[in-house]
Amino acid sequence: MYSNTSHIELLNQYKQYDYLNQNQKRPLVKILVSYIKPSFLFKSEILTPIHLGRAVERESSKDGTISDEDIKWLHENCIGDNDFEGNISAVNRRVGFLTGTYWAWKNYDKLGNPEYFGSFGVRKFLKPTLLKNIKLYNIILPQKEKLKYATNKEQFYKYHSQNLYVSLLNNLQKYYSNEVTLFEEYMNLNYGYYHELYIMNKNTFFKFCEWIMPLLNAFLHDQNCKVQLDNEEKITDLFRFHGISETRDIAYIIEILTGYFLYKTIQDKKCKFLEYEYEIILSKTEPSKDKLLKMLRKRIELRNKRF
Q1: Which of 191, 232, 236, 272 is deepest in the core (most CB within 10 A)?
Q2: Are 129 and 16 in contact (CB under 8 A)?
Q3: CA gyration radius, the chain
Q4: Residue 233 included in any domain
Q5: Is 302 within a domain?
Q6: pLDDT digits over 79-118, tens only?
Q7: DSSP calls for 206-229
Q8: How many C-beta neighbours within 10 Å does residue 48 have?
Q9: In angstroms, how far apart are the furthest CA atoms of the chain?
Q10: Quick one: which of 2, 66, 79 has its CA closest to 38?
Q11: Are the C-beta atoms of 52 and 100 separated by less than 8 Å?
Q12: Please, which contacts does 2-5 make with residues 24 or more away whose CB atoms are closer than 8 Å?
């Protein structure tokens, strides 16, 4: 999925579809592009950059702390996820993309009340050619992700611990007991829908928010909702790479639940959907995939010495 497409090329490809939002009473599609630090600016008639965690912008994130200059860039180029009463920006470090999703849900008119809404990360994009026939579909989701482990459940256990999965399942049972069987079916698949990448029509997007936000509130108040190192043998390479002080526990749950929501939505025969290619774009200042793997192995070797 890694792409040789440059940032500029990708932005220009998206701009070719700006006409979809012009000369109409309301935009056809708006896509939030999420930032927590400065990067290449993806901004067009369709792409809207949003600064996540603005309420806690000086606190460390998965990418460390940012400077005053970085904060200035983010304020000048992005909308903030904290610019309305009742925002959830302060929990971004645990929740991830969902603070931006919540902003869109509660401020949909500020986006122009578009027919379709999408959510991308700054380095992960669905290919823009999907926009040609967007009106044919209720939902566009990323192509199935090939798993490293046998099932979604096993992979979640390996990366994020059994304890976090138990919290996820307990709260799903509490709020949506009728969905537990289908959820477990999804978790036992050998593929999944990851990265919180999607484009949905307005009706589907609002259903998603109405469905997932009560769960988010439950996770935030669940004292057992946390990654737990069950024993030394279960600490995975990836978790070692992220570090034992990782705080994005709920973000991992939200990614799984977003994939499950996409899966359950397309089970409806009336739902017209499209699985589409996505790209992971690396900047010139970021290492190649091979270098990333070497860095990962070196990081693991160093951490192994601590145990």
Answers
A1: 236
A2: no
A3: 19
A4: yes
A5: no
A6: 999 999 999 999 999 999 999 999 999 999 999 999 999 9
A7: HHHHHHHHHHHHHHHT-TT-S---
A8: 22
A9: 62
A10: 66
A11: yes
A12: 2/279, 2/280, 2/282, 2/289, 3/279, 3/280, 3/281, 5/279, 5/281
Tell me: the pLDDT tens digits for 164-180? 999 999 999 999 999 99
- DSSP class of 4: -
* Beta-ladder partners of 141: 275
Compute the distance between CA of residue 273 and CA of residue 221 in angstroms, rounded to an integer.
Answer: 34
- For 64: left if phi > 0, alpha if psi spans -120 to 50, otherwise beta; the answer is left
Contact (CB, 8 A) for 99 and 67: no
pTM of model > 0.85: yes
C-alpha 234 chain-centroid distance: 26
Q: How far is residue 255's CA from residue 95's CA, in Å, rounded to a whole number?
A: 10
Q: What CA–CA distance (Å, rounded) separates 263 from 268?
A: 10
Residue 301 lies in a domain: no
Distance, CA of 216 to chain centre: 14
Sign of the alpha-carbon dihedral angle for 183, 258, 152, 234 = negative
Cα–Cα distance between 150 and 188 in angstroms, integer?
8
d(Cα 65, Cα 85) in Å, to the nearest integer? 26
CB 121 within 8 A of CB 186: no
Give me the sign of the Cα torsion angle 24, 26, 32, 37: positive
CA proximity to 5, closest of 125, 86, 172, 102: 125
Task: Report how many domains make up the chain.
Answer: 1
Rounded-to-integer distance, Cα 221 and Cα 164, Å: 14
Q: Tell me whether residue 306 is in a domain.
A: no
